[in-house]
Amino acid sequence: MEKLRNTVYYSDNQLKNWIENESLNETLATKADAIRRNIYGDDVYIRGLIEFSNYCKNDCFYCGIRKSNKNVKRYRLTPKEILECTDIGYKLGFRTYVMQSGEDTYYRDDMIVKIIETVKNKHPDTAITLSMGEKSYESYKRFYEAGADRYLLREETSDREHYNKLHPSFMSFDNRRESLWQLKEIGYQVGGGFMVDSPYQSTENLIEDLRFLQELEPDMIGIGPYLTSKDTPFSNFPDGSFKKTLRLVSILRILFPYALIPATTALGTINPLGREMGLKAGANVLMPNLSPIMYRKDYQLYDNKICTGDEAAECKACLSLRVDKSGYKIVCDKGDVITRQKDF
Ligand code: 5AD
Ligand code: FES
């Protein structure tokens, strides 16, 4: 089936006004919510997040689990532990698992393939989303052939100079973008995204990001505010703007009516009702944590992350309540992206 995502065009000037104008939150949210209801109704998809390793060979200046942060207690889940998380998730109604980690070379491709195959054998009616950073084309392909369905890899920024201000010189802007195209070509449902108000980010950078995403046409787009992380070189930069992040969620829904857009943990961290407001601003996905509680607090990309002490079941119950109260409903299925048949 040919996918036509109906990416809607707006001028740079229009986007700039939407991004910068503090008085537009409600207008944008109303417009975005109407678009989302038209396509996805009041459905909210849930993804069970398994943070299976916080080892990382990268050193992004904004991230709390960067290689140079010696204050992190590092952990790795065994394949058995990962499988246990998926079993718990399955019983709670999760039909998508997001396997997320730092860039950890300890897990050889064979190991990841085995984990994917085991999960898929045991729970064939689920989707597996990988979020493990940059790998080779061959690795992406092997994981896909083993049964992985989706891959999340935020581009972080679509401006080369800005990228170089956020990352050490051994990390590559070109490789990141190339990875996204490779993942698409292989057949994954692909997720991109960026932080709002990351250090040195301009409105023009954000517009460039929207343009890049319009070119890529990802199935999923994850954004959240930049949040201060105390043990990083950026520890002096303030948290990003909550309201601007909400406007960007709405802008994304307006530009990408069909996209799966999460109300992220970062949004819930910057404001206690952030995820609810994210849903009302156009988001339609939530990604609660299924990781074992004993490791939760060690996966801190930024300070004060929420839900580090809650069992998966409590988290699910808490989220259901929050979603209901916001006027939506949680759906327990795979929650694939809706695509439009091309009209001829
Ligand atoms: N604040 C907010 N988001 C962050 N991420 C990493 N560090 C931070 C931070 N300090 C985001 C990045 C990454 C995703 C997993 O988390 O965009 O892709
Ligand atoms: Fe985890 Fe509320 S969503 S405790």
Shape: globular
What is the CATH superfamily classification?
Aldolase class I
User: Largest beta sheet: what is the strand line-up?
Assistant: 2-3-4-5-6-7
Main sheet record: 6 strands, parallel
CATH fold category name = TIM Barrel
The CATH class designation is Alpha Beta
Relative strand content: 5-15%
Number of separate structural domains: 1
Q: In angstroms, what is the radius of gyration?
A: 19 Å
As a percent range, the share of helical residues equals 40-55%
Decide which structural class fits the backbone.
Answer: alpha/beta
Ligands, ions, cofactors: 5'-deoxyadenosine, FE2/S2 (inorganic) cluster
Kindly report the oligomeric state of this protein.
Answer: single chain
**Mean pLDDT across all residues, rounded?**
95
E-strand count: 9
Helix-strand pattern: HHEEHEHEHEHHEHEHHHEHHE
Tally of alpha and pi helices: 13
**Poorly predicted runs of 5 or more residues:** none
